[in-house]
């Protein structure tokens, strides 16, 4: 595993206010544990006092200033790292919705703080021990960090007029729960209580993709994840993803990726697979 998966950067106690020079790739998301002190950003002087957690999806991180006496641990998270942490359970949709947007939250409860400190310590220890560094372990620690953040952070209710965004989020939630059952778009629309045409317009306007494309992308992303991260035979993967048999799964996968499942697994398992960014699944593939 290389730093193409994740990075860890520690900034020890600052002697004076200073701009953080982050060693996080532009295509990475950023998760920061503010151990102590003040972290601020933006022209309006937004900020948070430690201890606290801050997260920005890729491309959305502002210029950050660490106040005197402050210290932080900064995680750079690739798409693959986040996907591995999300997992494929019904609860995963809540984590998925958590990391769609930036958030910052103070960690004031002693029990929560003890857990967060331990998780960031374990993540850092795993990352810095090059001989045993394991993507599976890092993803497991990151999942627990996200779960802790979810229990602490409570997003503000949607503002009036955000009906379309709400419908899209509900649709994504349903997709996460039922994509393995191969629901058709009309059933999603019925569950949401909206016309199929309206759901189509909202998805196209907000994401540039139709509802069916979003469902197929989620199914494809999960197929890629299982081919990459498990040694299960195609027959089992096909069954787990709701396909009648491995042949139908193979036909679906090849239509979506222009490569067979077996060939995909062989390629991404190669020693230089970390360089195949354009082939491997990413967070953007996951609606």
From TrEMBL:
Q: Which UniProt keywords apply?
A: DNA-binding, Transcription, Transcription regulation
InterPro entries this protein is in?
Homeodomain-like_sf, HTH_AraC
Source organism superkingdom: Bacteria
Signal peptide region: none
What SMART domains does this protein's entry cite? HTH_ARAC
Q: Where in this chain does the record put each HTH araC/xylS-type domain?
A: 169-267
- Keyword Transcription regulation attributed: yes
- Coiled coil located at which positions? none
User: Is Transcription regulation among the key words of this record?
Assistant: yes
Q: Which GO terms describe its molecular function?
A: DNA-binding transcription factor activity; sequence-specific DNA binding
What is the name listed in the Swiss-Prot or TrEMBL entry for this protein?
Answer: HTH-type transcriptional activator RhaS
> Highest lineage ranks of the organism?
Bacteria, Pseudomonadati, Pseudomonadota, Gammaproteobacteria, Chromatiales
* Record gene name: rhaS_2
């Amino acid at each position: 595993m290389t730093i193409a998966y994740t990075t860890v950067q520690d900034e020890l106690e600052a002697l004076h206010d200073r701009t953080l020079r982050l060693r996080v790739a532009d295509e990475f998301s950023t998760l920061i544990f503010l151990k102590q002190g003040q972290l601020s950003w933006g022209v309006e002087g937004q900020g948070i006092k430690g201890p606290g957690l801050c997260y920005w999806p890729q491309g959305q991180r502002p210029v950050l200033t660490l106040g005197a006496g402050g210290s932080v641990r900064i995680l750079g998270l690739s798409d693959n790292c986040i996907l591995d942490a999300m997992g494929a359970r019904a609860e995963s949709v809540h984590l998925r919705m958590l990391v769609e947007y930036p958030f910052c939250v103070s960690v004031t409860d002693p029990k929560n703080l003890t857990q967060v400190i331990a998780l960031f310590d374990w993540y850092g220890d795993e990352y810095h021990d090059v001989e045993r560094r394991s993507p599976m372990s890092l993803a497991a620690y990151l999942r627990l960090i996200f779960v802790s953040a979810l229990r602490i952070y409570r997003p503000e209710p949607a503002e009036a007029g955000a009906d379309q965004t709400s419908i899209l989020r509900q649709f994504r939630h349903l997709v996460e729960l039922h994509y393995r059952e191969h629901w058709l778009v009309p059933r999603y629309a019925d569950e949401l209580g909206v016309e199929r045409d309206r759901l189509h317009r909202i998805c196209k306007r907000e994401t540039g993709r139709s509802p069916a494309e979003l469902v197929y992308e989620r199914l494809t992303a999960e197929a890629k994840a299982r081919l990459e991260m498990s040694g299960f035979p195609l027959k089992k993967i096909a069954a787990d993803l709701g396909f009648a048999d491995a042949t139908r799964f193979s036909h679906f996968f090849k239509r979506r990726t222009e490569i067979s499942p077996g060939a995909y697994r062989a390629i991404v398992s190669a020693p230089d697979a970390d360089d195949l960014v354009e082939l491997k699944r990413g967070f953007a593939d996951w609606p």
